[in-house]
Structure formats: structure tokens, C-alpha cells
């Protein structure tokens, strides 16, 4: 049997419900510029009816209540955003380092290894044409020293960049762990509020934003648990579960694209970490190509130099330093004998005055195709190295442009669904305002009727 004051209670419930609608609308408007904020909407439901008997049972409505305040989200779009961010992170991580690598090859400025190679072979040609001129010996010595220095310094720069990449990988792994810990802390707070019947929408937004940040670093999959917490997976590795955040492996192998812990190897398929792995492998490849160039240069030049007679009548003198096994580009330099005395440079295959045959043979090395270089000349082989770097940078730039366009598209779709539209919110605010005013009018009327009834009974 409803109370005589049930009408007042019905109107009061409506006032409270519409107040929550106004509060939520105000919250949306206040967060229109908040990154990661998802628009919230109030869901209403009718309260349980009262029952009266008037010749038969009749149910009378008792008003309205707020059933929930929900985030407006599309889980499929969130998944697409994670994938898009992972691809974007991978592309940007690769491009940033490749551009640094490209800057180490100075050939586009006319002062790189290609120019030094040409100068080197030209100096031998000048010596072969005029073997009696001591200035030509100094020119060969200087050109050889410059070529060796450019090759070794480029290699050292690449080695330093490789070390920087490893530091970036280590820092990225640390960032992954920090975000995992943050997600776990948010899980704890969300679980508490869900257990108490709450809707921690703002905390869930913060968690989604942390997961979006994490997806930029590494490939991520998620699963929402029944207690409101969220499990996070990196491939087959469980990073966060209902128990807590796991320790992300700190050991890595860029060549295989994996991280390793005591359990096993875990593949990384996208994100900044994958981009750094890929770039580390590319840098190692460039370094290997420079090693091949340096060792081939040593072998080819020394074989001709050692067979010829130097200006002081000696034979068997190395032009470039060499050892077995060969040491690659890192320490390429003139041999000590040539570096300290230009008279130790070979001129001819005989010791006769005016024989420049050895120097001319070294000059002709410019056009010799070498099996160890894939039947390319030294110059063509190095040009191919530079072209490969340029091609890799171009591919990376295209990948960044594509990834950015995809991310922007997905972000726009997420914003269409979850973003705050001020026009819509103003319309909602007006709707709740009018509803609140109407409920207040009902309450005022009920109050007046009740007051009249009490006055009549008190006479």
C-alpha cells in the first residue's frame, strides 16, 4: 500500500535522478579537452512499482532511479587503436635511428668515402704517370690515410649508434615495466570500486590511456576480467593479470627480435621495441658491409703493393695494416711503414727508375670487379651500401606516413564515438534542466496538496 506521501517521494527521486544527469553532463563538458577521456552517459530505469487494491490489484509507478553511469566506448575501436599505435611506434622508432645512420654517410655532401676512393685511385694514377716525383708519393700517402680514416670513423660512428640503440632498447623495456606497474595499480583501485558496486569510469579511462601508451612501445592484447581488472599480454607473455604485474624480460636479442627470461624466449612483433630491434639489425648489416669493404681493400691493395718495389727499393711492404684474421673497418689505417715514410710506397714491378707499373695496377683496381664483393668494384659496392641506407630511410618514412595516417583515422573514429561534443552536451543539459524543473513543479504541487490535506484534517 503506497504512502500518502508517495507522490512527494516520486518527485524527489526524479529530482535526484535528473541532478545526476546534470552532474554527468557538467563532467563531460569539463573534460572536453582531457586526453583519453570517454564521454559518460546516465542510464535510467523505473523503480519498482507500488501495489494498491481497488477491486483488483493495481501497480502504480514509483518514479525513476539511476541504474548506471557508463562510458561510451567501442571495444573493437580500442583494439584497432592499439594495433595502429603499435605500428606507428615501430615505424617511428626505426626512422629516427635510420636518419641518424644516414647522416653518418657524408657522400651526399661530397666529402664521404666515395670521394675518398676516387681521390685515392687518382693519386695512384698520378704516381704511375710520374713515378719520379716525390710529391706524388706524398699524395698517395695522404689519400690513403684519408680513405682509411673515413672508413674507420664511419664504422666507429655506426658502432656508437648501435650502442645508443641498445640503450634505447633498455629504456623502452624499462618504460614497458613502468606502464605495466601503473596498469596494475589502476586495476587494484578499479577492482575495489567495482566490488562496492561503483563505476570507476575515470580510472578506466586512465587505464585505457596507459594501455594505449604501452601499445606504442610493444604489441599488446588485452582482456577485461569479471572483477573489472584488465589482463595485458605481449604476444604469449602475460604482462599483467588479476594477480599483478609480471616482470618484463630485460635480456634481448635484436637479431631474433625476442626478449628472454628464465622461462623462455618471447617474440616482439610490433611497437617501438620492434622498430629498435629492426634498426639494430640494419645498423649491424651496414657495419658488416663496411668490414667487407675494408678487408677487401686491404687484401687487394696490399697484394699489389707487396709485389712491387718501393721508392727505396724494398718489396713485401704492406700499404694498409693487416692481420689474420682480418679486423674489419674499425682499425683500418696505413701500415706503420707507409704512414711514417712515403718512400715505402710501391711504384713499379721492377726496381728500375721510371717504372710506375705497380702504381698503375693499383690505379686500375678502381675498375676491377671483385668476386668477394659480388662481382662489383670497390666503388660500386660502397655506392650500393649508401643506396641501401637511403632506400631503408625512404621505406621507413613511407611506413611512418602510413602509420600516422592510420592512427589519425582510428583516433578520429574513437573521438566520434567517445569524444565530448559540446553541442550534444548543451542539448542534454537543456533536457535535464527542463526535466528537473518539471519534477520540481510536481514536487511543489504534491507538497501543496499534502499541505491542504493536513490543514483539512486539523480543523
List the helices and strands and how they pair.
Blueprint: H1 6-30, E1 40-46, E2 50-53, E3 57-60, E4 64-71, H2 75-104, H3 113-129, H4 134-195, H5 201-217, E5 221-224, E6 230-234, E7 237-240, E8 251-253, E9 258-260, E10 265-267, H6 272-307, E11 309-310, H7 336-340, E12 346-348, H8 357-364, H9 378-418, H10 422-457
Can you walk me through this structure?
The chain has 459 residues and is mostly helical. It folds into two domains: 6-72 and 422-457, no CATH class; 80-406, no CATH class. Helices cover 60% and strands 11% of the residues. The chain has helices spanning 6-30, 75-104, 113-129, 134-195, 201-217, 272-307, 336-340, 357-364, 378-418, 422-457, and strands at residues 40-46, 50-53, 57-60, 64-71, 221-224, 230-234, 237-240, 251-253, 258-260, 265-267, 309-310, 346-348. The chain has a three-stranded antiparallel beta sheet. A three-stranded antiparallel beta sheet has the order 8-9-10, with no helix packed on it. It has a two-stranded antiparallel ribbon with strand order 1-4. β9 and β10 form a beta hairpin. 36% of the residues are buried.
Amino acid at each position: 500500500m503506497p504512502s500518502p506521501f508517495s507522490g512527494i517521494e516520486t518527485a524527489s527521486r526524479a529530482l535526484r535522478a535528473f541532478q545526476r544527469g546534470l552532474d554527468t553532463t557538467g563532467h563531460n563538458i569539463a573534460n572536453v579537452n582531457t586526453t583519453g577521456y570517454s564521454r559518460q552517459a546516465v542510464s535510467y530505469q523505473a523503480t519498482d512499482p507500488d501495489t494498491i487494491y481497488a477491486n483488483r490489484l493495481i501497480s502504480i509507478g514509483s518514479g525513476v532511479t539511476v541504474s548506471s553511469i557508463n562510458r561510451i566506448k567501442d571495444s573493437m575501436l580500442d583494439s584497432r587503436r592499439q594495433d595502429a599505435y603499435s605500428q606507428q611506434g615501430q615505424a617511428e622508432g626505426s626512422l629516427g635511428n635510420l636518419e641518424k645512420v644516414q647522416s653518418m654517410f657524408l657522400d651526399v655532401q661530397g666529402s664521404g668515402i666515395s670521394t675518398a676512393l676516387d681521390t685515392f685511385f687518382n693519386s695512384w694514377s698520378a704516381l704511375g704517370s710520374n713515378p719520379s716525383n716525390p710529391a706524388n708519393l706524398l699524395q698517395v700517402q695522404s689519400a690513403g690515410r684519408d680513405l682509411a680514416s673515413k672508413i674507420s670513423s664511419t664504422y666507429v660512428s655506426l658502432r656508437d649508434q648501435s650502442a645508443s640503440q641498445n640503450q634505447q632498447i633498455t629504456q623502452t623495456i624499462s618504460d614497458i615495466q613502468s606502464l605495466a606497474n601503473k596498469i596494475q595499480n589502476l586495476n587494484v583501485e578499479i577492482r575495489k570500486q567495482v566490488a562496492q558496486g561503483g563505476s570507476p569510469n575515470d580510472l578506466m579511462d586512465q587505464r585505457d590511456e596507459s594501455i594505449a601508451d604501452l601499445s606504442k612501445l610493444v604489441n599488446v592484447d588485452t582482456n577485461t576480467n569479471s572483477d573489472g581488472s584488465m589482463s595485458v599480454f605481449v604476444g604469449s607473455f602475460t604482462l599483467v593479470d588479476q594477480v599483478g604485474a609480471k616482470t618484463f624480460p630485460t635480456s634481448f636479442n635484436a637479431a631474433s627480435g625476442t626478449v628472454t627470461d628464465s622461462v623462455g624466449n618471447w617474440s616482439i612483433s610490433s611497437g617501438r621495441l620492434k622498430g629498435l630491434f629492426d634498426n639494430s639489425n640494419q645498423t649491424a648489416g651496414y657495419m658488416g658491409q663496411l668490414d667487407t669493404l675494408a678487408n677487401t681493400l686491404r687484401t687487394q691493395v696490399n697484394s699489389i703493393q707487396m709485389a712491387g718495389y718501393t721508392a727505396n727499393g724494398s718489396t713485401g711492404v704492406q700499404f694498409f695494416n693487416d692481420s689474420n684474421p682480418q679486423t674489419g673497418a674499425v682499425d683500418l689505417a696505413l701500415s706503420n711503414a707507409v704512414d711514417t715514410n712515403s718512400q715505402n710506397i710501391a711504384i713499379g714491378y721492377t726496381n728500375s727508375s721510371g717504372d710506375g707499373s705497380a702504381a698503375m695496377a693499383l690505379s686500375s683496381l678502381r675498375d676491377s670487379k671483385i668476386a668477394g664483393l659480388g662481382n662489383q668494384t670497390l666503388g660500386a659496392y660502397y655506392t650500393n651500401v649508401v643506396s641501401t641506407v637511403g632506400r631503408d630511410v625512404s621505406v621507413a618514412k613511407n611506413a611512418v606516413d602510413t602509420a600516422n595516417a592510420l592512427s589519425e583515422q582510428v583516433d578520429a573514429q574513437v573521438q566520434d564515438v567517445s569524444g565530448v561534443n559540446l553541442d550534444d552536451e548543451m542539448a542534454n543539459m537543456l533536457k535535464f534542466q527542463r526535466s528537473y524543473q518539471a519534477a520540481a513543479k510536481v514536487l511543489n504541487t504534491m507538497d501543496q496538496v499534502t499541505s491542504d490535506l493536513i490543514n483539512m484534517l486539523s480543523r
